[in-house]
Amino acid sequence: LDDDSYLQLPRLIGHLQVAGSDLLAMGFLMETELDWSGTHVCELCQPCEPCLKSEEMQQFCRQFPEMAYGGCIMAIQNCKIFSEEQDLDECVREKTAGIRRLSEYFGSRSAPRWMLGMGWVFGKGIVQYLGRNADHLK
User: Fold this and answer.
1) Which long-range contacts (CB under 8 A, 24 or more apart) does 113-118 make?
2) What are phi and psi of 16, to 5 degrees?
3) DSSP character for 135?
4) Percent residues over pLDDT 90 in the chain
5) How many CA atoms lie within 13 A of 22 on its CB side?
6) Residue 76 exposure: Cα atoms within 13 Å on the Cβ side
7) What is the torsional sign of CA 93, 80, 59, 61?
8) Closest C-alpha to 25, from 134, 106, 135, 114
9) Which among 19, 20, 39, 98 counts the fewest CB atoms within 10 Å?
């Protein structure tokens, strides 16, 4: 468990009794979007209006018609964080090519679902499987 997690044992035991399965898995699954080129601008800017009204940003993003306006802003943010010395339009092109490579590798716009590490409860069958295959698992 994370150090800020609170585990209420009586409630957990109640859930375990109801489920009653050796293959139980309780926790939170995440699905990470690999291709964020279609992101809507209002997912990034809140309130949305300033981004929608930024003529300078819109003009810059017009050179990337393969991306939604929000996807372009996401690429710009990535460039400012990780590649601030690089020419911005060159960096945006590289970021766009990178997300395409990832999507093609996985054959999907999203990564395979993964378990968020806050805390998990597994049934006996899953624990035994993990134990038997620990040397082969990443």
Assistant:
1) 113/29, 113/30, 113/31, 114/29, 114/30, 114/31, 114/32, 115/27, 115/28, 115/29, 115/30, 116/27, 116/28, 116/29, 116/30, 117/2, 118/1, 118/2, 118/5, 118/27, 118/28
2) -65, -40
3) G
4) 47
5) 6
6) 18
7) positive
8) 114
9) 20
Q: CA–CA separation, 30 vs 33, rounded Å?
A: 10
Average pLDDT over residues 57-83: 94
Give residue 33's identity as a one-letter amino acid code.
Answer: E
* Helix (H/G/I), strand (E/B), else coil: 133: helix
- In contact, 71 and 44? CB cutoff 8 Å: no
Burial tier of 19 (Cβ tally within 10 Å: 0-12, 13-18, 19+): middle
Query: Which residues share a beta bridge with 115?
Result: 29
Establish how many alpha carbons lie within 13 A of residue 135's alpha carbon, considering only the half-sphere containing its beta carbon: 1
Strand residues in the chain grouped as ranges (E) = 25-26, 29-30, 114-115, 121-122
Tokens 């009794």 correspond to what residue? Answer: 17
Amino acid code (one letter) for 68: A
Spatial distance between the Cα atoms of 11 and 93, rounded to a whole number of angstroms:
50
